[in-house]
Amino acid sequence: MASSTVNVVRYTALLSGVFYGIAHRRTLQKQHDEEKKHHAIQEREHLIHEAKEAWKRKQQSGSKDGVVTDPEDPKFDLEKLIAKWEKEAS
User: Whole-angstrom Cα distance, residue 74 to residue 4?
Assistant: First the structure.
């Protein structure tokens, strides 16, 4: 049988390993959470940038024809809009 000193050393090593594992897991989890948050922010910024670019392209393509697509606008002409849609479809 092992002496009581050896058992104390074994259990001390076991418990210190368990506590080290818990502390290390917390630091890894914290780093992962920060990285995940940073990635989500970057993804949102990228999507916003893409949406702004698409909106600019849409606004530029709409202004080429001179056709107003907003029905609330006083310059809105339904016949021109339908003609534009027919032209785009064919």
Answer: 94
